[in-house]
Amino acid sequence: MRRAVAFLLIAVAACGSSVAGQAGENFAQPAFRGQDKQWVPTVSPPPTTDVLPTGSGGYPSVVEGRPLVFPQDSGAHPDYRTEWWYVTGWLTDAEGAERGFQVTFFRVRTLIGEDNPSRFAPRQLIVAHAAIADPATGRLLHAERAERALDPLAGAAVGRTHAWIGDWVLEWRDGRYTTRIADDGFGFELDFTPEGPPMLNGRAGFSQKAPDPINASYYYSRPQLAVTGRLRIGARHHEVTGRAWLDHEWSSEILPDGARGWDWVGINLHDGGALMAFQMRDEAGAAMWSAGTYRAGRGEPQILDPEAVRFTPLRRWRSPRTGAEYPVQWQLDIDGRRLTLEPLFDDQELDSRRSTGAVYWEGAVRLLEGGREIGRGYLEMTGYTERLRM
After folding, report:
1. What is the dihedral of CA 205, 169, 359, 221, to 10 degrees?
2. Which residue, 164, 177, 88, 170, is CA-closest to 132?
3. Cα gap 21→28, rounded to integer Å
4. Count: domains in the chain
5. CA-to-CA distance for 156 and 11, rounded, in angstroms?
6. Strand, helix or coil for residue 256
7. Which CATH number do you get for residue 267?
8. Does pTM top 0.90 for this prediction?
9. In this structure, what DSSP letter does residue 13 have?
10. Please, which residues bridge with residue 269 across strands?
11. Residue 272 — left, alpha, or beta (φ > 0 → left; ψ -120 to 50 → alpha)?
12. What is the 8-class DSSP label of residue 46?
C-alpha cells in the first residue's frame, strides 16, 4: 500500500507547479495479453457518469465484492481520491554492485474546477517520485515532479498502465512494464517482465486498513518482476539486472481517525514466493491494524489476518536532516514464523516536501530467517515526522 501523499498536493494542483507491464502466457485473464493493442488513449478524463457508491467528501467508496478486472483495472480510476503505481526493487550491475531503486506515479482527484470547461482546470494532479539507494553514496539519490494532468504534458491513462510527466514514464508495452526516469544526478531505463498473474491483496483485492472497513483500498501487486535495463549515476552508465515489485492501489479513504502512519514491506522471496505486510500505527506508535499476503513459491496467495502479522522494532536510526527516528531493523512475525528485516544501509529517508509535503523512509531491505537471507525487497515507514493526511 502506498503511500505518502499528503493533501498538500491539492495546493500544488491549484498553482500547477512543476518540481525538480508480465509475460503474456502467464496472465490469469487472456484479455491482458492484448492490452497494448486494445488500449485507446484516454488521458485523465473527467469523473465517469457511472453510478458508484459514494463516500465522504464527494469521492466513491471502496466496497468489498467489487471484482478487479484486467486489463481495465491496470489503468487509472479518476473518480477515486488517490491512486498510485509503485515499483521497487534491487539492481545488480556488471561489477556486482547492488543498489535499490523506486519509481512511483501518483494520481490525485482534487475536486477543484470540475465544473470548469477549461482543459487547464486542475481536476487531476500527477506526481512522480524516483530514487536510487546506493551504498557508495550512503544516502538516497532522489528526484520528484508534479503537474496537473494535461495532455500531452502529464497524465494517467484509463484501461492500461501508462502514467507520465514529461519524459518520465511508467507504462505497459509489448508484454512488460517499462519506465524511463532522467534527472541531473541519476537516471534509469528499466523493463519489468512478470512471471505470473497479479497477486490480489486482502479479500480478492479489497484491502482493509482499519477495523472499520470504510478505510480500505483496491490493491494488487506484481511480485517477482524480472528486471533488465540501464542505470546512470552521475556520468557513469551501468547495465543492470534484478528483481522488482509493482503495487497498484486506489482509494478514497485510507487513514483511519487516530492513525499517524504505517509501516509496509514488499519482499520477493528467493523461493519464487512473495510477502506483503503492513501495520497502521496510532499516535502512541502502537499497531491499530495489520494485515498481509503471503505466497509460498508459485503457490496460491494466503491472506494474513491482523493476528498473523506483528512488527517489532529492533534498532533505530535518527536522520541528521529532519531529526526523525526510524526503526530501520525489525522483527517481523508472520503466521508463526519469526523473521528479521535489515536495511541495505540506514539513511534511506526521502524528503518530498517540494511535491507532496511528506518526509518518510523508503529503502531496500533484506529478509532473514534464522540468520539466513530468504528474500529482498523494500520497506516503507511513514508518519515518523508528522501525521500523514490521506
Report:
1. 20
2. 88
3. 14
4. 1
5. 20
6. coil
7. 2.40.370.10
8. no
9. H
10. 375
11. left
12. P
